[in-house]
Design brief:
Radius of gyration: 27 Å
Largest sheet: none
Structural class: mainly alpha
CATH class of the largest domain: Mainly Alpha
CATH architecture of the largest domain: Orthogonal Bundle
Helix content: over 70%
CATH topology of the largest domain: MetI-like fold
CATH superfamily of the largest domain: MetI-like
Number of domains: 2
Number of helices: 14
Shape: globular
Number of strands: 0
Order of helices and strands: HHHHHHHHHHHHHH
Strand content: under 5%
């Protein structure tokens, strides 16, 4: 019996669902293959250095297991440096949040118009080297700097900001403000205007709409911005060295000095203490950042 050709094709043709499933599996495998360069980079420059810090922080010079390196955080000098770093980082993060949120709201309202220039102004300083930006602020704030020169020209009293905590906070806010603005803006711009209009149609005023609709929906961006500002502010030593001089010592300066003197065990032990705050921040981020759920490659 001769089977028609179209019947043969249907007999050997795979179901549509199986072909779609194979296509999805093939696409996932391609994505995994493309991620391998980053995996290699991550192992070489993130995981291995972290393991080295963990090893040196939990051993002494004779390679014996010890917790004395971590316990050095209780030293009065180290404890004072840690508390001061926490204080300045918290103040800088709050200032960045207070400045960034209204700016992100303005950018969101002008999203459909020309706001690219404002975004360019925000990210433009990031194109310049971090160290150069900080040195520029040193020249601006020093006693013979630009600000005091202008004040002297108008016969006004000069400001003594350099080598103070205010100078460090100013440097932190200037360098890390874009890391607070952009996450909040990226979340606010995704808020559906129909939701806001529905709240107003139901009688909510501007304050109620912000507190009940906009603010809760922007929490993931706020948490991301807080994490991206607080962590580098806590661990920085360049800003405090240049703008704070030798008068103000943060925990980052203590760790940097220990590594410079060759005390890898002490520096690593103090670094492990800071890693606790970093892991805590990451835990908060993973709890509130709902947009990243289900996007893992593996």
């Amino acid at each position: 019996m001769k089977v028609p050709l179209n019947v043969k094709n249907k007999m050997f043709q795979k179901p549509a669902k199986d072909s779609d499933k194979e296509f999805k599996i093939g696409r996932v495998n391609q994505v995994k293959l493309l991620s391998f360069p980053y995996i290699i980079w991550m192992v070489g420059f993130i995981i291995i250095p972290l393991l080295m810090i963990l090893y040196y922080g939990l051993t002494d010079r004779d390679n014996n297991l010890t917790f004395k390196n971590i316990a050095l955080i209780s030293d009065p000098i180290n404890r004072k440096a840690l508390l001061l770093a926490l204080e300045l980082s918290l103040i800088s993060t709050i200032i960045c949040l207070l400045l960034a949120y209204p700016l992100a709201m303005v950018l969101r309202k002008n999203h459909k118009t020309s706001n690219s220039f404002i975004v360019l102004i925000i990210i433009l300083p990031m194109w310049m080297n971090f160290l150069l930006r900080t040195i520029a602020w040193q020249n601006i704030l020093e006693k013979t700097g630009i600000i005091n020169s202008i004040l002297q020209f108008f016969h006004l009293p000069t400001l003594n900001i350099i080598n103070t905590s205010a100078a460090i906070i100013l440097g932190m806010v200037y360098n890390f403000l874009p890391f607070m603005v952009l996450p909040i803006y990226n979340v606010l711009v995704k808020v559906d205007k129909d939701v806001i209009n529905a709240a107003r149609d139901l009688g909510a005023n501007g304050r109620q709409t912000f507190l009940k609709i906009i603010l809760p929906l922007s929490i993931p961006g706020v948490v991301s911005g807080i994490t991206m500002v607080f962590v580098p502010s806590l661990t920085t030593f360049v800003i405090s060295t240049i703008l704070g001089g030798s008068k103000i010592v943060l925990i980052g300066n203590v760790i940097e000095q220990q590594f410079r003197l060759g005390n890898w065990n002490t520096g690593s032990g103090l670094s492990l203490v800071l890693m606790v705050f970093i892991l805590f921040s990451m835990a908060i981020l993973s709890k509130y950042d709902k947009e990243s759920e289900g996007s893992n490659l593996w």
